[in-house]
Amino acid sequence: MNVSAPLRYIITIIQVLAIICTVHATPVTSNLSPNPLTLSNGLDAPTVPKCNRLPHWIPKTIRHRDCLQALELFRMAEGAKSGTQRFEFLARGAQKTSYLLPLFTPRVYNVSTCTIAIAMLASIPPRFLPPAARQGKVWPRTDIETLDELRNATALVVRECVLYAPPRGIHPLAGWVPRGRLDGAIGVFVYESGSLMDRVVRGEQGVFSDATVAANQMLKAVPNVSISRN
User: Fold this and answer.
1) Is 104 left (phi over 0), alpha (psi -120 to 50) or beta?
2) Which residue has the higher pLDDT, 129 or 227?
3) Exposure pattern of 86-116 as b/e (b: 16+ CB <10 Å)?
């Protein structure tokens, strides 16, 4: 059965809102041990996303619907992998330190004005990070996490910074939150596409993403959508 583009868009919004409502109702750390919101250096990671309007993160604006579609793109692009399986996330050029399957970063999901990125904090120059991510710490180039946890964290950033940013989401903000079971070294970022932060995260060699061809095909009808890859 063929589904019209407007109906497909409505279905996508309903699915994404269901994810966000689930995150709102259930603490994202309920199934984790040890608590990923406590970094190994004793510093508490933010329990809620840190939102900002830094000019190199959001020079103009982010549209709500673009971030909702980018969140759905994340789910679709990584859908072939187990959401509950632990992976070792690595910065470009980093060596594996565990027996877990590796996933290389940055992993970038872009829809028009909104970009979601999963990147190792060690790969981003400190001057481009918010103060809470600096702390004088030398971040490791690998960390361990599940895709479900990163997806929930992303939904949390979209909800708090984009949809419900005061006053009432009229002016969406960029934002981030750290994740990672060992060191909290994985950054979950939401910012404006084409911003300086976007270019920094992607790096000079472009962005690696092993998102499947099927995900691209499923989103052909959605304008201005891309999954970045090397």
Assistant:
1) beta
2) 129
3) ebbbbbbebeeeeeeeebbbbbbbbbbbbbb
Give the pLDDT mean for 117-132. 86
Q: Assess whether the previous peptide bond of 36 is cis (omega < 30° from 0).
A: no
Give the Cα separation of 55 and 111 in Å (integer): 20
Count of CB atoms situated within 10 Å of the CB of 148: 15
Cite the DSSP H helix spans in the chain: 5-25, 64-77, 131-134, 147-157, 196-202, 213-218
- pTM for the whole structure: 0.72
Task: For residues 162 and 160, give the distance between their C-alpha atoms in angstroms, rounded to a whole number.
Answer: 6
Task: Fill in the DSSP letter of residue 207.
Answer: -
Q: CA nearest 16: which of 54, 66, 69? A: 69
Mean pLDDT of the chain: 75
At 65-86, the pLDDT tens digits run 999 999 999 999 988 888 899 9
Count of beta carbons in the 10 Å neighbourhood of residue 131: 8
Residue 223 pLDDT > 70, yes or no?
no
